[in-house]
Amino acid sequence: MGSGSSGSVPLPDAIGQGVVRRLTRTEYNFTVRDLFGSSLTPADAFPGDVGADGFDKASSPQSVVAAHLSAFEKGAATVIEAVFADPTQRAKVVSCDLVADANCMRQSLEAFLPRAWRRPIQPAEVARLMALGATEAQAGGPPEEQLKLALRGALTSPHFMYLIELDPDLTSTAPHPLNSYELAARLSYFLWSSTPDDELRAVATAGTLQDDAQLSQQLQRMLVDAKSSAMSSVFTAQWLQLAKLATHDIKPDIFPDVSPDIKTAMSAETQLFFQDLLQNGGALGTLLGADYAFINPALAAHYGLPVPATTDFIKVSVAGTTRVGGLLGHSSILTLTSSLEKTSAVKRGAWVLDNMLCSQPPPPPPDVMKQIIAQQQQTEMLTATSTQRDFLAVHRANPTCAGCHSVIDPVGLALENYNAVGQYRSMDKGVVVDASGMLRDGTAFRDAHEFAKILSSKPELGSCVAKKLFTFALGRAPSVDDSAHLASVVTTNQDQLANVLSKLVISKPFRFRRGG
Prior knowledge:
two-stranded antiparallel ribbon, about 5% strand, mainly alpha, elongated, 2 domains, about 525 residues
């Protein structure tokens, strides 16, 4: 490569009217995969994503600092060099002879940029990148190096790095529809965490994507595509915090059988479970009320279920067994909401309330540490055989703590039959586990099975899932103005998950935006 490409790659002019959200690291990697057929994951080296509400892309428009620019430029260079070293990947960018054909570089850019920037390209934009490539020619670089530099410029452009939605009037709060290309990008990054494919871009170009029927048709097509696995892997990992499982430490002397492979299987079960609901007509209530699980041999042994003959994951019935079939019976969830060596009814209760019902308990009192110290003397009177229920009873006896613990504890204690890595137990410290309880509304339950069944029919479950999907899809939490639209997205927990996605995509918040 000539000296003309040794410096930083300049960014095109700044985005003017509109909002921008930088691609998350996952989105960047998936987009590179789909543009080039590459298995590279260059964004793994990028600075961490700054998200909110549990989702990486739920944040205000993200600024760029020097550390980002350096990482983006390095990532673009890594991608382009790898692509040109692989004939199959190179063919996705260059289909002509760069040496013999003087127009080859321009033709390559004109074909690539609409895919990379997710919209039609203006001649001036191509000219700007051609001029960037010309700096390599001036330094003596051959045509291929010139195109490489231009492509690096394309990949470090805000038109690639950011999802851009323009506003006719930045100060107006009146909603206006997204244009077809912006809508296509919203849809593809919602379902695939990646760029629109050729068919979706063609529909956007034809101007028919704004039609309800066409939009729904594209959603259904995209859901059965293999790339829809991103919906399960990315959404569930962030919603249910599965990404934390790999680094969740477990006492090896207490749980020696919990290997990294078991942790991987735990996460896979949850993602496969969600994917099955999405593609096979599963209802929202099934998230907690299912009577089946996805297991491989390692996870079957972990659960005490019959070990399948195949090494692949299979769907098995757990009706009549000790396992709860929905999310509340998944070891991924039960492990994440435990401490290193024992269960935590408080963590589990707070997790269920927040992630399944979108009902956060009251905040702890200002003098919570003073209360904890004062209660240490009381808890010291408990014995080594005292259970979680015994310890938490002390907290609920304190009026200052009761406000939180009376809400959280019954929910977490309902799962006490599962140890810190999600294995069933009937005894804890020589005492029979009592998983019974009562919810705030007075509904009583005997164990985790009854508890899961009760929650599966609560309307709060459906509305909470809708809120989580909304936040993931739009990169922002719902506002008060979105309430009516959200209410129409989920009418009952019998609604199929795929239909909920369809109604969300058709809704006004998904298809419109506003300035301000």
